[in-house]
Design brief:
Structural class: alpha/beta
InterPro entries: Serpin_dom, Serpin_fam, Serpin_sf, Serpin_sf_1, Serpin_sf_2
Largest sheet: 9 strands, mixed
GO molecular function, one term: serine-type endopeptidase inhibitor activity
Family: Belongs to the serpin family.
Order of helices and strands: EEEHEHHHEHEHEEEEEHEEHEEEEE
Helix content: 25-40%
Keywords: Protease inhibitor, Serine protease inhibitor, Signal
Protein name: Serpin B10
Length: 414
């Protein structure tokens, strides 16, 4: 139970963080190769791999994973802006922040600006902070300026004390609208109540098409090996053309990269050479392999890739605690950068993700014809995704650096 003083004594309430993202395979703008932006990109990528590997530990073998490190990073960055002491130190370490705060702020502003400039693709990104109206005036001006100016967030008053359920419904409607109805009921009943003082949300929606679409006529049923002994029938897409391919001996794996209409944005499929090799691949990643260093080369290929749809709800609180971020969830959390004379902490942190891969690239994308060459050429590299694999959705800047938007594992294509 949390109690709020009726007079001038410090008040005790709770802060809720909501993190969400829906991805329907899209593309994005070109990132300028600036030093502040490069610093933020490196932080996101390092954080991404940590997040993915910890979630793999928690879920164990055989479970699908879909995370948006970028979404988690952006909303946690807003929390970091109001943290001090041990609370701030733990978040700084987890987010892999550079030491130079000025560089970081410039990098965030560049990234947010670029995310709003996305030709030839539908890309929605939005931050929102809902604050209990009775304590809104107690928010420190520096925190407000950072949230609005650096993190491009809207700051709205809410009546959680007397109309928590109405506010919950309103927030969920905003999320649903921002994600084209792919994420509904983000906040379950009861999570927002009269003790809530703040809800922080990041919403991202992508919608794009493949540069070269798969032909639906070439999609057929095939076996997918969930384990060596267990198979399921999946809709296997087929394409025969030049693609970017990489052999990765250090991971005992190979990879293919599929570009979207905006070629700065692509989906990487990382396939272990062994049907049961995904856990071993994850172990090699934890030993320090850098996914951004995969050397892709243009190769004539025959690709078989299952259609799949993933929808996940992630307990970010448990994930962060496993990463060593514990202080912000305790009643001793230090958020004195947000409020004066307040004892607040994060009570809940969640993320919802959605991703669908099909012949067009996205569920809503307009189809265009693409003629498949029927004759099998002996020089074509065969790449059949018929067992558990890893996915990574990235965008590149002009220097070739990539930032991870989504990362996951597919054990069971749905």
């Amino acid at each position: 139970m949390y109690i709020m003083s009726q007079h001038d004594a410090p008040w005790i309430r709770k802060v809720i963080i909501m993190m969400l993202l829906t991805c329907v395979a899209s593309s994005t703008a070109t990132l300028e190769p600036t030093e502040p932006l490069a610093a933020v990109v490196k932080s996101v990528n390092d954080f991404s791999l940590d997040l993915y590997l910890k979630e793999a530990e928690i879920k164990g073998p055989g479970e699908n994973i879909l995370l948006s490190p970028l979404s988690a990073f952006l909303v946690t960055a807003m929390v970091h802006a109001g943290a001090e002491g041990l609370t701030k130190d733990e978040i700084t370490k987890a987010l892999r922040y550079p030491r130079d705060g000025g560089t970081l702020e410039k990098g965030f502003m560049l990234l947010h600006n670029l995310l709003q400039n996305t030709p030839n693709v539908t890309l929605e990104t939005a931050n929102r902070v809902y604050v209990e109206e009775n304590i809104g005036k107690k928010i420190k001006s520096n925190f407000q300026e950072t949230i609005i100016g650096v993190h491009k967030s809207e700051l709205l008053a809410a009546d959680f004390q007397f109309h928590a359920e109405e506010e919950r419904i309103s927030i969920n409607e905003w999320v649903s609208n921002k994600t084209q109805q792919k994420i509904v009921d983000l906040i379950p009943p009861g999570m927002v109540n009269h003790d809530t003082i703040m809800v922080l949300i990041n919403a991202v929606y992508f919608h794009g098409e493949w540069k070269k679409q798969f032909s639906k006529k070439q999609t057929s049923e095939d076996d997918f090996y969930i384990t060596n002994d267990q198979t399921k029938t999946v809709k296997m897409m087929f394409i025969q053309r030049k693609l970017k391919y990489a052999n990765i001996p250090k991971l005992d794996a190979q990879a293919v990269e599929l570009s979207y209409k905006n070629e700065n944005f692509c989906l990487q499929i990382i396939l272990p050479n062994s049907r049961h090799g995904l856990e071993a691949l994850q172990k090699k990643l934890s030993d320090g392999f850098d996914l951004s260093n995969i050397d892709f080369k243009s190769t004539l290929m025959i690709l078989h890739l299952p259609k799949f749809k993933l929808a996940e709800t992630v307990d970010i609180k448990s994930l962060y605690q496993k990463m060593g971020v514990t202080s912000m969830f305790q009643q001793t959390a230090n958020f004195s950068g947000m409020f004066d004379n307040a004892s607040v902490h994060v009570s809940d942190a969640i993320q919802k993700t959605f991703m669908e891969v099909d012949e067009r690239g996205t569920m809503a994308g307009a189809a265009s014809s693409f003629k498949i060459v029927n004759r099998m050429m002996p020089s074509f590299k065969k790449f059949k995704v018929d067992h558990p694999y890893m996915v990574r959705l990235i965008m590149r800047n002009l220097s070739g650096e990539s930032v991870t938007l989504f990362i996951g594992s597919v054990y069971n294509p749905n």
